[in-house]
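Supplementary Methods, section 5.1.

A reviewer requested that the exact input to the structure prediction be made available. We therefore reproduce it here, unchanged from the version used in the analyses.
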Amino acid sequence: MTRRLGPSGPARVADQLFLAAHDHDTGHLQTRLHKAGMELVLDRRIDLQQGRVVLVSRAPLPDILSQTVLEDIVSELHVAKQPHTVRVWLLYLSHSAVTQVRNRLCFTGILEEVPGRRWWGGVANKYRAVNINQALGPEAAVHSLLTHEQAVGSSVPAVTFASLADACGLLPKLTWWHEQRTGMRRRLGQLRDQLPRALRELVDQTEAAVGDAVIGRR
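The structure derived from this sequence is encoded token-by-token as follows.
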């Protein structure tokens, strides 16, 4: 049986980023995902120190995907005897993040798989939102965050999501009117500067990793 979420929508940052990057008409993603395991910063299981992922707590997590990544970090720390860099983990996570996060969204009832076909023939299943209003929740949250004066302390997850979305080049998609983007980007910059140190570093490292990926495809 599929487990469903309430009307508040997805709570995990990687889920929100997937939905932000997801074209709900075509079922395609507009950018790569790197962040599935980096949710552990918000969970206070890891910290980012001088560009490296440092274990803070091994306490188990209820989310299966996050728990799997936590176990990978613990295992690698045991083998390597020193923390890997954030960039190494972002690259490692990017290989499977799309599939894993998509599966989580299907499990929680946000997305569903539907049969489709390629125009040249062959099966190509797509994924569509079960409730489009719920799926568009992250976009609405960013718009609300950037158009209303709000203290960062009460909305750290929302500011983190907006900052990571911007790092991935998704801010134009999430800000509905072109005329507002300059002011919204300025507002986001102010909020981003108020994030805790580890989250600011996560955003910076993500931005650099996305830039490397773009250069690598040229």
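The beta strands are 46-49, 52-55, 111-114, 126-129. These observations are discussed further in the main text.
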